[in-house]
Structures are given as C-alpha cells and as structure tokens.
Task: inverse folding
C-alpha cells in the first residue's frame, strides 16, 4: 500500500477504519481476490473515506450518493481516466454492498451510482507466423558451447513461451504450476485461476515436447532441496518468478524480426485469437481462458474482425 494511502488510512475515525478492515477481510477471505486487486480496491476506498471525513462524515451511515458522486467528480477534475473512474466506482460499489450485507447501513447507496464504462482497447496480438517465429527464437541454441546450466535455462525458457502460447494461461497461473499439475499423457494442465477456481487446459504436441525436454534435461540441473514441487524453476532452484517469465517472453519476442513487442498477456491474447480464427466457439475460449463472464471473452471477436478487415483491405480487388 502506498505511503499516502497508509497515512490516510491511519487518520480515519475508528468506526470507518473498522468498516474498512471488515471489507478488506471479505475481499481476501471470501472473494479471494489477488493481492494486487485488494491493494487497488482498498486504496480507492481509503480515498473515498478520506473524502467523506472531509465532508464531516464519521461513520459508514454518513456515506451517501452525493458523497460518492462528488468523490468521483473530484477524481475526474484531477485527471483520472475513464478506466480509473470505472475502477474506483466498482471499488466503492463493492464497499457499499458489503456495508449493506453486514447490516452496517440500511441502504446500499452504491446501487444508484452511475459511472463511465472503461474504454476496451483491442489487445495486441501476434499473427500466426509471428508466433511461430517467436517460438523458434526461444528454442534457438546459442553459437558455441553451452554449460549444463545454460542448457537448462534455455529449455525452461522454451517451455515458458510454448506453454503460454499453447494454453493461453496467465503468467501467474503458469509459474504457480507444480509438476503434478501436468497430465503428460492427456496433455492437460490443472490450473488454479482467479478466485481459486480450478480448470483443465489442453496443450499441444510442441509444448509437450518442450515439457519432456525440460523435465528430462533441464529441471534436474536447476533443482535443489528447496525447489519443492514447482514445475518451473529460477536460476537458484526456487519457483520461477513472474517477472523473470515476463523477461523471457520479451526477449524471445525481441529476437524475432518484425514482431510487435508483447509480453505473456500478449501471448494469451494471441492464443485466444488464433483459436477463435480456427473455428472455436466463444464458450470454449471462455473456458480455456478462465473468464468468469462471456463478455470478457467477446473482446476477441473484435480482434478477429479487425484482422479480417485488414486482410480484406490488403487482398480484395475492390476493397
């Protein structure tokens, strides 16, 4: 939590601080949100409650629709983007809903709060040929001899890129995999996604080959007594850090000429787009990606339409 947020939280009246703490516990234990999401939501509501105090409010019962609206308007005046305003509104509505459910207020004032919808930008994706080039670069051995450790890291890096693109999993889901989460016979990953929801995700033959190479000739070289069951390991034998996985992806993408810079999420977007272009239905892609709502998956239909329009413009004689 940022220093400014911590200071504002410490200055809240006891009643508001208690309401905030109860809601934060709800986010962590019952909704099981990620630490990043909890931190962002709590920071938003600390700002809201500070605004309430400045308007002479001391308890959750003092939080009304006018306070919510003036708080959002203040942020817009300060330069908040539409997406930030939409997130702050969502945070406040979650807070007011909790206040109502826990009996701290008689009415959920957040139900009447309108907010702008965040602009949905089309995710950056690779073409199929570009994705193939990235995968080839990830697996290209260096000129000259490799040490066993160098070979192990290269095999790991190949697997990182192959699995991200083959399965469309999030980078956090990837580094969280244990060896037992991989069904090598059926080529399935057991993934623990957002909200601790488990799903099974298939992967193809190239990723299976990369997996066998890593497990046979890579992981044993890096593994230590403290490696535990982690599938992917860092250079010191611990579980691979998401930041290192991102670095691996960016390096592989940068090595492929003419390829736009994308990270792990770009490979996820690319996988979803290519599966849709191959004829998969939206529900199947929703299940593959672990989206709670089909509306989240529908952004990929716009990606494929944009790609179709580009092909039409380039190839059709009367485009």
Result:
């Amino acid at each position: 939590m940022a220093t400014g947020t911590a200071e504002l939280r410490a200055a809240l009246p006891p009643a508001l601080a208690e309401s905030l703490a109860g809601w934060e516990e709800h986010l962590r234990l019952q909704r099981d949100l990620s630490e990043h999401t909890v931190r962002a939501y709590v920071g938003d509501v600390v700002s809201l409650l500070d605004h309430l105090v400045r308007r002479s409010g001391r308890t959750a019962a003092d939080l009304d629709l006018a306070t919510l609206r003036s708080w959002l308007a203040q942020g817009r005046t300060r330069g908040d983007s539409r997406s930030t305003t939409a997130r702050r509104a969502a945070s406040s509505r979650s807070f007011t809903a909790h206040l109502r459910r826990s009996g701290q207020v008689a009415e959920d004032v957040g139900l009447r709060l309108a907010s702008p919808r965040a602009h949905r930008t089309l995710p950056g994706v690779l073409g199929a040929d570009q994705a193939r080039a990235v995968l080839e670069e990830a697996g290209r051995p260096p000129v000259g001899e490799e040490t066993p450790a160098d070979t192990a890291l290269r095999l790991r890096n190949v697997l990182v890129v192959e699995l991200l693109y083959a399965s469309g999993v999030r980078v956090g889901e990837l580094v969280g995999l244990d060896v037992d989460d991989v069904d090598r016979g059926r080529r399935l990953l057991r993934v623990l996604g957002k909200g601790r929801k488990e799903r099974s995700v298939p992967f193809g033959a190239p990723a299976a080959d990369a997996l066998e190479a890593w497990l046979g000739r890579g992981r044993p070289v890096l593994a230590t007594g403290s490696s535990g069951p982690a599938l992917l390991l860092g250079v010191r034998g611990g579980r691979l850090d998401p930041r290192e996985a991102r670095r691996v992806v960016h390096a592989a993408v940068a090595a492929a000429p003419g390829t736009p810079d994308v990270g792990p999420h770009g490979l996820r977007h690319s996988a979803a787009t290519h599966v849709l272009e191959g004829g998969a239905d939206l529900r199947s892609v929703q299940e593959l990606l672990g989206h709670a709502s089909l509306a989240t998956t529908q952004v990929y239909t716009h990606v494929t339409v944009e790609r179709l329009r580009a092909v039409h413009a380039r190839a059709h004689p009367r485009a």
The CA atoms of residues 71 and 77 lie 10 Å apart.
